[in-house]
Design brief:
binds magnesium ion, binds zinc ion, alpha/beta, about 220 residues
């Protein structure tokens, strides 16, 4: 019985995600679902990404948190469109939550929408929202065993950002092992090593993002 219930929830979510996707396509918008554990650096990455691409791309952000609007306040200082979703206890965003946040944004004024999911390495990867790409961050402070322990997120993501590489001298994290296990799970995964502190590697990430938006707008 339980399996059937879960399956129905996911099917209902997939239908809503498909509607969102159609809307995003009509608006010529590229949508990224940004996922990680709490504290891996999602909001910091967003701040750097917005700074790097401002003037080139019109970026909007949906912030997902269980409570508080602290992250949306941080992002709103960048002077871009941002909306906060509070999930009231739910540990992930789903298609329906994103759909209800969309009227707060003027989609036709955006090229790129980044949705910062709730900090959690497990179920955010199970719920589609109509995104073009899932992008995940793994901080080196989390250790090198996460791809083995939480394979779904690594399988579902287009991009793995290995963050806080400036801390590598102080933590036990074998980056080669992270890459090897991640690529065994998902041979198409693109991996960038970055530090939001020093700025290292961020150019490759923002360049990838810029290319995705430009390829996308050529097709629509
Ligand atoms: Mg955050
Ligand atoms: Zn959840």
């Amino acid at each position: 019985m339980k399996i059937t219930v879960v399956k129905n929830i996911l099917e209902a979510n997939d239908r809503i995600a498909e509607d969102n996707r159609r809307l995003f396509e009509e608006s010529g918008l590229l949508v990224i679902n940004l996922m990680s554990s709490p504290g891996a650096g999602k909001t910091s990455l967003l701040e750097h990404t917005i700074d790097a691409l401002s003037g080139r791309l019109r970026i909007g952000v949906i912030e997902g948190d269980i409570q508080s609007s602290a992250d949306a306040e941080r992002i709103s200082r960048k002077g871009i469109q941002v909306v906060q979703i509070n999930t009231d206890g739910a540990c992930h965003l789903d298609g329906n939550m994103v759909r209800h946040a969309l009227p707060a944004l003027t989609l036709s004024d955006l090229d790129l929408l980044i949705v910062e999911n709730v900090g959690n390495l497990v179920c955010p990867a199970e719920f589609k929202m109509g995104e073009d790409h899932k992008v995940m961050i793994l901080s080196v402070t989390e250790g090198d065993d996460k791809p083995e322990k939480y394979p779904l997120m690594f399988r579902e993501s287009s991009i793995l950002l290995i963050n806080k590489i400036d801390l590598l001298p102080y933590v036990d994290c074998n980056v080669d092992k992270v890459k090897e296990v991640s690529l065994a799970l998902n041979p198409d995964l693109k991996i960038f090593e970055i530090s939001c502190k020093t700025g290292e590697g961020l150019d490759s990430w923002t360049q990838w993002l810029d290319e995705q938006v430009r390829t996308r707008s050529r097709h629509t």
